[in-house]
Amino acid sequence: MRISLVAGNWKMNKTIAEARELVFKMSSPLREIQGVEKVLCPPFMSLLPVSALLEGSGIGLGAQNMHWEEKGAFTGEVSPLMLKEFCQYVILGHSERRTYFGETDEIVNRKLRAAQAFDLTPIVCVGETLEQYEAKQTSEVVARQISLGLKDVDPAFAPRIVVAYEPVWAIGTGKASSAENANRVHAQVVRPALSELYGNETAQAIRILYGGSVTASNAAEYFGQTDIDGALVGGTSLKTEDFVAITKAAARP
Question: Do 223 and 233 form a contact (C-beta atoms < 8 A)?
């Protein structure tokens, strides 16, 4: 059985002092929850202090982005080599990176292969815009993002990949996709696209998260579906009680 995973993407929020305070509040209740992987993804500035606070807690640490090169003249970027010192996970291809910073599927693929090279577990985001959703292009868009974004990965590494289906129209809008619709995309689009790349056995081992207005009140409905293996949580991950409740709902015996 695939182990469920809940990751909190803090986005561009929290100073170092605020990040410390939030971790102090949520680390103990999160530590008590078994049967689910837990990951916190604070901004780059907070990775080092949060890493120290999470040491020995069983809670993973992830970055929100990275460059694909190990080092070089890339002002303002952070390399996988730098992240490797503190992180076990990295979010790649989030819709905000694609929309605001022009990241393409090819760029996501370069970053994914860098994550492989530096033994970081990638959380690769895919999803359609509202315009694409209304034009009934979800299957086409998501399958393309997987085909191009995840190509040329060593099959032995592929089971480490985590895919997060985040319909862009549902992120931070309060308009969450229904659990049934999200599961349909996971089961009928994402997993078949993974199977095309790596074969059915490997595709069945890859975890697929849902993201987009997941809350404490609707989390159980999502996690009760056959092909939803957890969540990538945005703004709600900054609220201790809600994020803990979502994590509890994802736990499996």
Answer: no
Distance from the first to the final alpha carbon of the chain: 10
68: CB partners within 8 A, 6+ apart: 80, 107, 110, 111, 113, 114
What is the largest distance, in Å, between two alpha-carbon atoms of the chain?
48
Beta-carbon contacts of 224 under 8 Å, excluding residues fewer than 6 positions away, are: 179
CA angle 62, 150, 127 (to 5 degrees): 75
Give the CA distances from residue 122 to residues 20, 185, 207, 224, in Å, rounded to whole numbers and listed in that order.
Answer: 24, 20, 11, 24
> Taking a C-beta distance cutoff of 8 angstroms, is the pair 152, 158 a contact?
no
What pTM was computed for the model? 0.96
> 86-100: per-residue pLDDT in tens?
999 999 999 999 999
DSSP line for 74-115: -TT---HHHHHTT-SEEEES-HHHHHHH---HHHHHHHHHHH
Nearest to 124 by CA among 78, 173, 160: 160
Can you list the positions of beta strands (E) in the chain? 5-9, 37-41, 60-63, 89-92, 121-126, 162-165, 207-210, 230-233
Is 63 in contact with 41 (CB distance < 8 Å)? yes
Active site residues: 94, 166
**In the predicted structure, residue 171 carries a pLDDT above the cut 80:** no
Domains of the chain: 5-250 (3.20.20.70)
